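Dear support,

We are seeing what looks like truncated structure output for some complexes. This example has two components. We would appreciate it if you could run it in full and send us the complete token output so we can diff it against ours.
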Amino acid sequence: MGTSLKRASQARLVGRAHVYGDHIDTDRIIPGKYTKTLDLSHLAEHVLEDLDPDFRQRVQPGDILVAGANFGCGSSREQAPLALKAAGVAAVVARSFARIFYRNAINIGLPAVEIGPHRIRSGHRLEVDLRAGVVRDLTQGEEYPATPMPRVMLAILRAGGLVNYLREHRDYRLGDEHGAP
Amino acid sequence: MVAQTITEKILASHAGLSSVRPGQFITARVDRVMAHDITGPLALAQLEAHGIDRPFDPERIVLVPDHLVPSPTAQAAQAIHRLRAFARRHGVTFFEVGRGGIAHILLLEEGLVAPGELVVGADSHTCTLGAVGAFATGLGSTDTAAAMATGEVWLRVPATIRVRLEGSLPRFVMAKDIMLALLAQIGLDGAAYRALEFVGSTLAELDLDERATLCNMAVEAGAKNGIVPPDPRTLAYVEARVARPFTPVVSDPGADYLDEVVIRCSHLEPLVAEPHSPARGRPVSELAGLRVDQVFLGSCTNGKLTDLRVAAALLRGRRIPPHVRMVVTPATQSIYREALAEGLLEVFVQAGAVVTGASCGACPGLHTGVLGPGEVCLATTNRNFRGRMGSPEARIYLANPAVAAATALTGVLTDPRAVVGGEGLFV
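Here is the complete output from our reference environment:
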């Protein structure tokens, strides 16, 4: 996963938005019944199937998921961000993230970006600019500043995920204030 | 010295610091790392794929198959075997089928967590372990793999919301109702990224099983951890189980809290959370009469001995009517054995319920009670998200074990106070 993600996390991501509401839990991102094997290849086929049965047909590689508050609440299953990534989702933008999902997404190299109130609708073209820390709605010509990501998470994302990061750094320490954004 | 909360003190001591403040990023040493059969294989795959074969300290790692035991599929058997093989290779603790149970309850029972310790686990309900005054939080598989490899975890110190529980719980009202009331008040993200610290006069009457229920559902409000400061009852529980030295800590007078929520426990009724959110709790009396197909008594929330006793007291000598079914899943094998010795399992079976082996059971919708389209289930679990227990067209209502037993006896949502008898209950 390393190289492509490293590229992705440094590039500006442009894709179509798929917009959902608040409190999308991990059972709806990927139901538990698909998590009981080590075979991850089928996860993409079932992503969001109870929430939006047509998502799988509509999603294109590079598309961006947009959600309301508390995205990814519930179970700690890392299969949730893995399923989104496997389906081609390039980034998730939300008003807020449940904490375990947020860590999991960054740890597998899926950018998770928090923004304030927005008018993004499904089908809008979005640009997620990780370096500038903004999300641009190219269809509407609007720009939303992203909540700054903690430094440690940014470093993990840049490395392409936690496993790569730890291979490079051995531990999490980035200096005295290693986490401050 | 800065006045600190119990959560801040535990985090500071594990980060090698004299104090920490909310918002601060720390690297903390972990006393225990847990993974189970859904999250563990992925964690081990992350370790092995990247050549990190050696865990930092095998004695601090515990692997617990609990979601898929005994294996319902060949793939599940393969996943569990991966945990078993890793445990054998490295001398890591592994709980074999028939000798284990749901990880969180098992870790409490086995003394694998003690006051003042820091535990991470690859399951969102790892926060259950806060019941003994430990800091415990859930992580994903990759974070857990990193903790297994390094013995450390990075954390942002959470601000604490104090939850003050006041008064005596009325009959048939349990810790579950306290949490459903709290969730109805603050919502699914009302404690997001925060610590929930439970204090107040009600705690004196809550045993460790009930305290575990409080901490267990902290994550339903988005909390990083739930914690009950240790008291003599905690120490009596832990000292019977833990041989190693540990250092209980409590919050300093004058510690800073982000907020305080007061729950007047003496005014609570048994609550039922409607589909599809644990924050949709309403008094059971308002929902009485709703038809139910299945009642599930179990899970890390309410599959403990206290829970089985409460349900059995209502079911004793009674029969579940033909149009409803009840599934009882003790949380651990030792709870199963104790329930057997006390005659509780006989009560369930005589009433017409099915008793399964100790596991997560029907709660995550994997086996032993998966719901079909259109079915309605009253469950003592922690989440009633759409599709959680099987079909997305099924409807799940959450309640305490007394409501579950009363509902099993009628086939419709029933206030346990309306069931004749049931004397001798201690809640």
